[in-house]
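Fill in residues.
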């Protein structure tokens, strides 16, 4: 799909995103050790064959008893048990003739007979077979981020690997005259926190020929260029993409990130982000993150709906990214369309205000996408 922009025109974010993702599919899954799986997107694995636990086990340390023998027992009216209870510890298999576990303080075995000082219902203090995981459940949910709890389940099942999808991203830093690499580091660290593998980071001189030559290696799932997309005399990244026949669109109806360019080199999607951190961050959220989600097979991100503490005003015709913090049980706008560094640092979530919207009124519920680092 090709949607070239004429000078002075802007391509809508919707059209740009559709062009970028056209023909892009999830990468092939690969097995990784559990210690490397955290934060990646789970791929499909065979379902758990057996339930966990496989049989009834004690959920607490205590005395394994029969609930029927405890009916009427209390601190004021202890009962003598017809048979000595069995001491059991959490995780031990329950004896076949016992159906509950009493707290240690509720049984007195110091005398010639065992006395109980409390009742228990059948199943109390017991984890039933299949209560943790039913047979046939997946080890990890395909398309979801792998968390510590997923690793716990995998280890309980005796697994040492999980299947994940990890996009390989090549990052090309178009060297700034100042030599600064702040945006490149921001983008690289954001890639890693999104479960991508940054396969290469290269610095290239700020001329069209050098940038164009840097595109030759296609053995990646996504290529990112950072810098050289604006109006400066040395900003020639879009020109370099055009020289290679890779440019799809330059100048997006997006704020921040309006000078972002997208392309396709062979079958590999390409995104060229602006060199300033706020512009690069806006482009990353609006275009790079969806590309990573598609490549990793991630399930759709679910926004958290809260009312706004104050209104958001937005310009019609441009999609503006809003950074939000939490203010009690409301979203508090920190920045809209222009990102001070402090807003980027403090933001808990972000929201794309569509180009056909003038914004949202105070107290209106909006579904914002939380950042993974939110406290």
């Amino acid at each position: 799909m090709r949607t070239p922009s004429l000078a002075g025109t802007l391509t809508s974010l919707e059209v740009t995103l559709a062009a970028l993702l056209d023909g892009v599919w999830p990468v092939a899954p690969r097995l990784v050790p559990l210690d490397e799986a955290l934060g990646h997107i789970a791929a499909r694995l065979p379902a758990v064959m057996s339930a966990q636990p496989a049989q009834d086990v004690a959920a607490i340390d205590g005395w394994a008893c029969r609930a029927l023998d405890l009916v009427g027992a209390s601190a004021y009216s202890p009962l003598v048990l017809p048979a000595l209870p069995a001491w059991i510890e959490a995780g031990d298999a329950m004896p076949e003739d016992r159906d509950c576990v009493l707290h240690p303080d509720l049984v007195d075995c110091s005398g010639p007979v065992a006395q109980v000082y409390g009742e228990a219902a059948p199943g109390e203090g017991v984890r039933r077979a299949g209560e943790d995981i039913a047979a046939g459940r997946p080890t990890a949910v395909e398309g979801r981020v792998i968390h510590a709890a997923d690793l716990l389940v995998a280890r309980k099942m005796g697994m040492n690997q999980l299947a994940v999808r990890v996009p390989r991203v090549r990052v090309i830093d178009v060297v700034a005259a100042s030599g600064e690499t702040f945006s490149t580091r921001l983008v690289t660290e954001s890639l890693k926190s999104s479960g991508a593998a940054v396969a290469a980071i290269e610095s290239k001189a700020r001329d069209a020929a050098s940038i164009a030559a840097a595109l030759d290696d296609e053995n990646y799932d996504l290529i990112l260029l950072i810098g050289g997309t604006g109006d400066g005399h040395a900003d020639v990244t879009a020109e370099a993409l055009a020289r290679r026949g890779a440019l799809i669109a330059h100048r997006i109806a997006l704020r921040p990130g309006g000078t972002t360019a997208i392309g396709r080199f062979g079958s590999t999607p390409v995104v060229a982000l602006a060199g300033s951190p706020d512009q690069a961050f806006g482009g990353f959220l609006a275009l790079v993150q969806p590309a990573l989600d598609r490549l990793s097979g991630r399930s759709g991100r679910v926004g958290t709906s809260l009312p706004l503490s104050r209104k958001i005003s937005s310009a019609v015709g441009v999609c503006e990214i809003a950074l939000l913090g939490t203010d009690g049980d409301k979203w508090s706008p920190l920045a809209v369309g222009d990102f001070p560094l402090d807003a980027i640092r403090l933001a808990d979530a972000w929201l794309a205000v569509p180009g056909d919207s003038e914004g949202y009124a105070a107290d209106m519920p909006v579904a914002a996408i939380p950042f993974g680092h939110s406290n």
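Residues 349 and 371 are 5 Å apart (CA to CA).
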